[in-house]
Amino acid sequence: MLQRLFSLLFPAFLSCALTGALLVAIPGAPAAWAQETEPVRVEHGCQGSDLFERMAPEARNALAAAAMAAPFPSGNHWLASRGDSTIHLIGTFHVFDPRMTPHMRKLMPVLHKADLILLEATEDDMAQLKKDLASKPEMIFVTGPTLPDRLEPAEWNALRSELELRGIPGFFAAKFQPWYVTMILSIPPCAASQMTEGSTGFDQLIMTAAREMGTPTMALEPYDTVFRVFGGMTPEEQLESVRSAMASAPMATDMLVTMKNAYFREEHRLLWEVARQQSIDAASDPEQGQADFERLEDALINDRNLAWMDRIRAEAPGRTLVVAVGAGHLAGHKGLLNLLAEDGYEIRRQDF
Prior knowledge:
The chain is 55% helix and 11% strand.
C-alpha cells in the first residue's frame, strides 16, 4: 500500500520541487529535502553518515547495476538539441548546500543565454500558494478529528516531540493533514532550521538569478499538482504513513547526507533504486511492494514528466530553454531525457 512507501521513499520525493513549494509556503514549517563525499558530514549542527558507506559491497554493486540499466542514470546537466531548438536540462536539489555555489557560477552563462526558464514552480506560484493557503486552510489542515484524536496518546506525544524538534508547535501540527506530517518527519531538524535561516535550494538560486537577469520563468504544472497526488490517499493510508514515518524519523539526517552526497556525485538514479529496494524489502509481499512502488513512481514522476513534455514541446521551437527540475525527473524510460530522445533530440551530457 502507498502508506508503506511514504517513510521509505519520501527522501526521493524531494526530487519533486513542489514538495519544497509546499513547505516554504507554510509559516513555521520547514523547508523541504559527491565527488567530495565523506562518510560523515555535519548538516547545520546535525551529524549524519552516508548510508552508502555502511552498505555491503555486494548490495551497493547490485543497486549500481540497477541504476545503470535505466536510460540516462547520472548527470545533473544535459543539452538536448534538435533543429533550431536547444534545451538545457538541470537536475536540482531542494535543500541548500554550500557545494552548490561553484555549480551555480558555472551555470550562469547558460542562464544568460536562455529565452525562457521552465521550473516546477515559479516565485509567482509560491506567492499564490501562500495566498490560497490563507483562504483555503483545508489544503493542509483537517476539518474533522485531529491527530491527537486519531492516534494513541503515546503515539501523539512522540509525534509532537519530533515535530517540535523541527520548529512546529504541537498545537499547530495537531490539525495538519497526516500526509503533510509525514513529509515533515522526513526532514531532519537540522534541515528544518533552514527555513528560518533563509537558506534555499538549487531551484531558488536559479529563480533568483533569472529575476536579476530579467529572464522570464514559467511553471511546468499547476502548483497544486502534488497536493492532488497526496490528497488521493485515504484517511487510513495517511494515518499509517505517519506511523511508518515515525519509525524512520531517526534516519532522516543520514538520508539527507546520503542524498546530498549522491547528488553532487550526479548519481540521481542510484537514490531512486535504493528507494525501490527499500520498498520491496519492507513489504510482506515483495511483488506487492514492487507494484506499490511503480504506482507511486507513476504518480509522482512519470505522469508528471509526460504532462511536462506538452509544455516543453510548445515552448521549445526556435528558442533556447532551461528546464530546471528535481534530479529524479531526468532518468528512466519515462524520464525527461529519454522522452526528449524519443522526440528526436540529440542528448549530450554537459559539465556540471
